[in-house]
Design a protein that fits this description.
Oligomer: single chain
Strand content: under 5%
Helix content: over 70%
Distance between the termini: 51 Å
Number of helices: 15
Largest sheet: 2 strands, antiparallel
Number of strands: 2
Structural class: mainly alpha
Strand order of the largest sheet: 1-2
């Protein structure tokens, strides 16, 4: 609309007309729609297909698995049976290796989290000679490949008598898990407001109480993320266990690999064993997924 005021012509802005959206804005608004959510759900289901297939295969007899694929159970549900899991429980090598996996994974995870948290707090808030240089040395250890240290450490463990034992496998995992743990937790603890720590010190809190009552609760998400990472890495590891364990200390990954090499066709033991080996870390991840996401988001915000 055009008006004339004092000899001047003014054009009023048009009302009721939506501004033209750019192509990027239209794409962004379309991404948040229901179609994309359905697409992401389908992608998630697609990634679960191998897990579902392994579960159904572990519930079938070797004869049925050799005759048809695991999807046959949808048309013939009578094929489902738990006989394979009964045979698995009767296999002493698999059951003992599963116990060895727990004995290796739990201490290796707990030790890395505890020692990494203590060292991370010391590097972040305690003053001692050469602190920054020691931290740089820890960061430098992150670039050391595991493969480079296998032979030297194997010779060292052999000399001190722990090669081929569960303790040797745990010690190797702890040694190579600590640099990342210290690096991650030190950077997270360093973002805690100094005023909060000073207030606790004024109230008479010592370093240990300050660490337990203030730093640990605030660092819970980062510690949970570290614990999940370490647990999954140790549980699924086969290279370190293949080198440093023997027949009496081998975890489930090495035991399954040995079963494949020795027999090759004992799918009635391999399928349920592989599913149990896979489902336990999945259960741990989903049980602590909120803490994991919180830790990742906290690190992103900081």
């Amino acid at each position: 609309m055009t008006t004339h005021v004092g000899g001047l012509t003014k054009t009023a802005p048009a009302t009721g007309v939506k501004p033209r959206q750019s192509l990027g804005s239209r794409l962004a608004s379309g991404v948040s729609g229901g179609i994309v959510r359905v697409f992401l759900l389908l992608v998630g289901l697609f990634w679960l297909v191998p897990t579902i297939g392994l579960l159904l295969a572990s519930l079938r007899t070797p004869e049925d698995m050799s005759a048809s694929g695991w999807w046959k159970v949808f048309s013939e549900p009578s094929q489902l049976t738990v006989d394979s899991y009964q045979k698995l429980l009767e296999n002493g090598d698999i059951t003992s290796s599963l116990g060895n996996t727990v004995l290796i994974t739990v201490p290796a995870t707990v030790l890395v989290v505890v020692i990494g948290a203590l060292a991370g707090y010391a590097f972040a808030w305690m003053e001692f000679p050469g602190r920054d240089w020691w931290f740089l040395a820890v960061v430098g250890l992150l670039v050391v490949p595991v493969q480079v240290a296998l032979i030297p450490i194997a010779e060292l463990f052999g000399k001190i008598g722990i090669f081929g034992t569960i303790f040797g496998v745990i010690l190797f995992h702890v040694g190579f898990g600590l640099p990342f743990a210290v690096f991650l937790l030190r950077n997270f603890f360093a973002e805690i407001p100094r005023e909060l720590l000073e207030a606790a010190r004024l109230d008479g809190a010592g370093e240990l109480r300050l660490f337990l009552k203030v730093v640990m609760p605030l660092g819970g998400p980062a510690i949970a993320s570290l614990g999940i990472f370490q647990f999954l890495w140790v549980w699924n590891d086969m290279l370190v266990a293949l080198v440093f364990s023997d027949a009496g200390s081998q975890p489930i990954t090495v035991a399954l690999q040995t079963q494949v090499r020795q027999f090759g066709n004992n799918i009635d033991v391999l399928a349920p064993g592989a599913f149990i080996s896979m489902v336990i870390p999945l259960a741990v991840f989903f049980a602590f997924q909120r803490q994991f996401v919180s830790g990742v988001m906290a690190g992103a915000v900081k």
